[in-house]
Each structure stands twice: as structure tokens, then as C-alpha cells.
Amino acid sequence: MSFILKKYSHKNKFCHSVSYSYFCAWFGVCQAVYFGLRSVYARLVIGNVRSFRNRESIRVRALCVGCYDYILLQGNSHDLQSEKWYISTTLLFFVEIAYWVLVAGKIYYFMKRNLFLFLAIVSVVGMIAISGCKKKETYTVTFNPNGGTGTMVAQTFTEGETQALTSNSFTRESHTFFYWNTVQDGTGTTYADGQTIAVTADMTLYAQWKIVPQWVDLGLPSGTKWATFNVGASSPEEYGNYFAWGETSNKETYNWSTYKYCNGEYNTLTKYCNNAEYGSNGFTDTLTTLIASDDAATTNWGADWRMPTREEMNELYSNCTQEWTTQNGVNGRMFTGINGNYIFLPAAGGRDDTELLSADSHGVYWSSSLGTNNQSSAWYIELNSDNFYIRNSSGRYCGLSVRPVCAK
Fold first, then answer.
1. Distances from the Cα of 243 to the Cα of 169, 204, 249, 251, angstroms
2. How far apart, in whole angstroms, are the C-alpha atoms of residue 318 and residue 218?
3. Beta carbons within 10 angstroms of residue 316's beta carbon
4. Angle value at C-alpha 193, between 187 and 198, nearest 5 degrees
5. Which residues pair with 356 in a beta bridge?
6. Are residues 173 and 111 in contact, defined by beta-carbon separation less than 8 angstroms?
7. Rg of the chain over all Cα atoms, to the nearest angstrom
8. Cβ neighbour number for residue 176 with a 10 Å cutoff
9. Domains of the chain, with CATH numbers?
10. What global pTM score does this model have?
11. Rounded Cα gap, residues 15 and 106, in angstroms
12. Of 158, 191, 207, 400, which residue is the least packed, with the fewest Cβ within 10 Å?
């Protein structure tokens, strides 16, 4: 026993010179000795206790978990306090001390070899416990009509859960709801109406609208029906967008160097040119009317709409009465058909280079017809407070308004 205790007391030497299996073997031997002596000691004590006449007065107690046993007698106790019981009790006491020292050593040895594993287990259990107790966040989705009218209640989302977006209830004149977007101009993330989503932060969704063009029957001989507002507008008084002839989107700068169908000059045309004097390196083709892919009305509003021809502009001029007027604070000309229906063309001006010119005093509208003699221009109508003109003198690069006609 002293050998075992000596080995254990020098823990560094023990841990490095004695293998773990060797340590376990000694531990097992000590356990056998310990429990064997306890059994012998208990048998002797119990046997002696039973020899007393007055054994009801004897109580045997175990201190701790059996460190050592002692006998407390009420009355005569000279036989049980003899030397042999003192020796046996003392021996068992030291055996038990040695046993529990070895138990503590085994626990320490295991912990030393597996400390990282123990800490990892504790950390994982701790994280699981903490995550399980974390309160889930809630987020708010706010709906913005973005030019529409009406109200919608903000929607609450819980972290980690999905639900369908509230269906749109906003409305907008001459528009239909298209989708939701996280940015007002539609350049952000898009969500369909009623789409099921998960939310990770508060956000605002802006309604995106698609124009629903409307037409007016003016009773014209051809049956041509004119739109009620310009491309890029949503009401008759709005100016809308400006387009170079043959281009389908507005831009910041309008000049020959930015024009799509030339090489930087009026006489370097690359499309819609019947005269070699205007073509790039003598280029010519046979196109005299804008095709659908170059028609600002068709590309922006769909196949049911197109830009009017020169002939249709002449028909409007010849079959309607017209007057310079102000509608909702905007100047322009009103064209009234023989059936009493009318359209209003605002004096939206035009764009040259980066400037907007003559707005509120002149209106200039492209046709789809190429200029007859001057290939660097196309036919257009110009209106002001004095009159209404059909011309082809402005360069094709200029940014002018477009009032579509129905293609049906």
C-alpha cells in the first residue's frame, strides 16, 4: 500500500512512467483489498455484537461512506474497546483513505487526458441551452403605395418563420399593380403579390405599377383611335418621356454623338436612310417607317400600340377642331372629333443636348415616318398657341414626345 501511495504522490513520475492500464490494475487490487477487509471487519464486529446479552443497546454507525466504523455502547463496553478492535478499526481507516486517494487520482488522470473533450462538451451543451432560450425577433413589413391611393396595415413577421405577404389593396388611376419592390424605383428585390417569404429585418415594400393605356375614338375616317396620354405619362397633362427618333428609352443627353443610328454626324446614318448622301460611307436601305423594335410606343406599351404615321397626323389635323387651352394648369392643344370626344396634347417642349426647351409653350411629337428629302430628320407635329404644324426639319437625335395610336 505504501508503494502505491508513493507512486501516486509523485504524480509527474506516475503519469509518465506508469501506463494508464498499469494504474487501473493497481486500482483494482486496492479495491479488492479494501472491500475484503471491510467484509472481515464487519463480520467480526457483528459476530461480537450478537454475543452480548443486552444487544438492543448497541448501535453500529457508518461515518461518511464507510471511512471507518465505530461501535457506541450504552452500558458496559469493556469487551468491545479491547485492543484487537482498535487495531482493526485503525487499519480499515487507513485502507479507506488510500482507496479514496486512488479514486481522486483516477478522476484527475482522466480529466488531464480529456480536458479539451470535457470543455468542448460543456461549451456545446451551453450553446444549445442558450440558443434554445433565445427570444425570437419580430420584424415589420410596411407597404408604400408609391403613387397609388389607399391604406394597408403593416405586417409582422417572426424570425425564422415564413408567411404570405398581404395582398395589395392600393389602386392607381390608369395603372394596374405589377409587383412589390424594396426600392421605390423598382431596382431592388422584387416580390410577387401574396408571395410567401421570410424576413430578417424591418423593410418597406413599394408598389410597382404598370400603365394601362386608354384610347379615345374621335370619329376619324380611318377609325384610328388615339391614346389619352403620352408614353411615360399616366395622365393627359403629364409630359411623359422624350425619345430620339427610332430609340425606345429616354436618356440624359440628346445629340448626334449619342444617337443610336449614326456614327456621330447627321450624314453618317446606319439605318433608315434612302439617300446615300446621308448614309455612313454611302449606306442606304429601304426602310421608311419605324419597325416595331424601334417604335417607342410598341416597346413601352406593347403590340397593341404604335407611333402614328405622317398620314394619321394629317387626318387628326384635318378632321378635328382644335384650340390652345389649359388643362389642370398645363398648356396645350385640345383636338375634338366630330363625335364630341377629344384628346389633349400638352406643350411638353423638346430636348436638345441636356436641355429641355420650350416646355409649356410648344409641343413636338414624333411620327413613325422617315423624312422625305431630309433623311437626317423624320416627320413630326409641332403645336403652340398660334397653330399646329406637320414638319420634318428637326434632327432625328432630338428628344421629342410620343402620343401613340391603337394598333388594333
1. 34, 33, 6, 8
2. 12
3. 23
4. 80
5. 351
6. no
7. 50
8. 10
9. 2-131 (no CATH), 138-211 (2.60.40), 215-406 (no CATH)
10. 0.60
11. 11
12. 158
User: Which sign does the torsion angle of CA 173, 179, 180, 184 carry?
Assistant: negative
Residue 278, number of CB atoms within 10 A of its CB: 22
- Which residues lie below 8 Å from residue 379, measured CB to CB, with a gap of 6+? 310, 313, 367, 369, 370, 371, 390, 391, 392
Q: Which residues of 364-373 are buried (b: 16+ CB within 10 A; e: fewer)?
A: bbbbbbbbee
The C-alpha cell at 382 is 409641332
For residue 113, what is its C-alpha cell?
A: 487526458
Task: Render pLDDT for 21-70 as a digit per residue (tens, 0 to 9).
Answer: 555 555 566 556 655 655 555 555 444 444 433 433 333 333 333 333 33
Categorise residue 60: left if φ over 0, alpha if ψ from -120 to 50, beta otherwise. Answer: beta
Interval 85-122: pLDDT, tens: 445 555 555 656 666 666 666 666 666 566 656 666 66
What would the pLDDT profile of 334-376 be if each residue is shown by its tens digit? 999 999 999 999 999 999 999 999 999 999 999 999 999 889 9
φ/ψ (deg, to 5) at 330: -115, 130
Please name the amino acid found at residue 402. Answer: V
